Amino acid sequence: MRTVVNKPDQQASLLTVSPRKFFRVLVLISVGFTVVSYSWRMLGIYGLVNSSKLARVMTKFDVNLENTFPSFYATLILLLSSFLLACIAWAASVQKGEYILHWKWLSAIFLFLATDEMLALHDSLTDYMRRVFHAGGFLFYAWVIPYAFFVVFVGLMYIRFLAHLPVRIRHLFLLSGALYVGGALGLEMVVGFLMTSRISMDSLILLAALEEHTEELLEMLGIALFIYTLLLYIRMKFGNLVVQLSDD
Question: What residue ranges are annotated as transmembrane (predicted)?
Answer without folding.
Answer: 21-40, 72-91, 103-120, 140-159, 171-197, 217-234
